[in-house]
Amino acid sequence: MFDALKDRFEKIFGTLRGKGRLSEEDVNLALREVRRALLEADVHYKVVKDLTDRIRERATGQDVLASITPAQQVLTIVFEELVAVMGSEPKPLTISPKPPTVYLMAGLQGSGKTTSTVKIASRLKGSHKPLVVACDLQRPAAVEQLRVLAEKAGVAFYGPQAGQTDPVQVARGSLKYAEDHLADLILLDTAGRLQIDEALMEELVRIKEAVPPQEVLLVVDAMTGQEAVTVAESFHAKLGLTGVVLTKLDGDARGGAALAIGAATGAPVKLAGMGEKIEDLEVFDARRMGQRILGMGDVVGLVERVQQVTSQQDVERLTESLKKNRFTLEDMLLQLQQIQKMGPLEKVLEMLPIPGASKMAQGADLDPKRIKHTEAIILSMTLRERRSPEIIKGARRRRIAQGSGTSVQMVNQVLHQYEQMKDLMKAFGKGGRKGFRMPGGGMRNLFR
């Protein structure tokens, strides 16, 4: 979602890095581009003005202009102010000391409210026993949609009983149901509208009064731009929001809502939906988001992705290989399979905290089909060939090419890739004593 904004910031700070010393005019020109980039990203103009004013005040100080690394200091100031706008620290969801905890989910139609309700329930089911409640009796099939998603996520569901047409009755009934079934967390999926109206707000207020919630969470589609801020302000005025859930942050819209909604309403962004799957929900971390927007990488996010796709057994196996200074094609196959589980490779590369990582991702050959071909070639080898690649000569290479549906040239390329990765693993093995240095032409060659 922030690719265009990130590219603009990289260009702005690339220009500043090319200057030995910065003048006040250099800073003003850079801030003019920063302001333009934020406005084009659909950030609310008031937020942009306040943000750039604070950056200018800090960046034009003598300590920055006379610094040995002024461009880096300006980048740091922009990063800190962006983080301050989005919310300095992650805000966890509130849990009531006396169960049940109640979350009231609000939002317009199409914002992803029902899906987000189940995502939150699924996220918390390891430490709580959640119950999702269908209080949306307006939209056709809304009750059934929540029921199906709840069953898929493995969480309890409660819907309107026979003859019930008032969502307040459903909300009250869920309290008794939760008590009988030992559920300690209730998530009320309420009705939405295509636009804000008095009937919608009155209904939400009645539910809030009948079943007082610990959290009033507004679900906002991040692709709606500045309109998201207006929607949030309206809901906040009536309901007193305690937090915001941003959805569709994996989309290709400009994403200004993520930067502005917290500053405009005072309600912190607590969670972010990063995809359509039940597990695609993250705690919103302003620092990590700021790092990604400014092209500074996201090491924490990268580590989390690695942990998700890597078992303890795989870690121990690779560690043992590194200790023995032995890296086989079997190890390479395991690495490729894990990389594929991490998602699009260009997105993984962009999470590396190295300058120009996004440009490197664009220039590297990251075609997923090539990885599939590499996997097919290694799987076409015998166990002995995978463990001792040096025995793979002409006849064996022709057989492997035929068995994998590729060419001898591609088999040669895979073996060459293997030698590069073998050198890289040797460097990792020695890194504890001598420090790590990328062999063979750097990261770009590794990803070719």
Write the layout of secondary structure elements.
Blueprint: H1 3-17, H2 24-40, H3 45-59, H4 62-65, H5 70-86, E1 101-106, H6 113-124, E2 130-135, H7 142-153, E3 156-158, H8 167-180, E4 185-190, H9 198-210, E5 215-221, H10 227-239, E6 243-247, H11 256-265, E7 269-273, E8 281-283, H12 286-293, H13 299-309, H14 312-323, H15 329-341, H16 345-350, H17 357-363, H18 368-379, H19 383-387, H20 394-404, H21 408-434, H22 443-446
Helix pairs in contact: 1-2, 2-3, 3-5, 5-12, 6-7, 8-9, 10-11, 15-18, 18-20, 20-21
| Mean pLDDT metric | 80
Number of helices: 22
Q: Give the oligomeric state.
A: single chain
Query: What's the overall geometry?
Result: flat
Strand order of the largest sheet: 3-2-4-1-5-6-7-8
What can you see in these coordinates?
The structure is a single chain. This protein is an alpha/beta fold and 448 residues long. It is 58% helix and 9% strand. It has helices at residues 3-17, 24-40, 45-59, 62-65, 70-86, 113-124, 142-153, 167-180, 198-210, 227-239, 256-265, 286-293, 299-309, 312-323, 329-341, 345-350, 357-363, 368-379, 383-387, 394-404, 408-434, 443-446; strands at 101-106, 130-135, 156-158, 185-190, 215-221, 243-247, 269-273, 281-283. It has an 8-stranded mixed beta sheet, with helices on both faces. Strand 6, helix 11 and strand 7 (269-273) form a beta-alpha-beta unit. The longest helix has 27 residues, at 408-434.
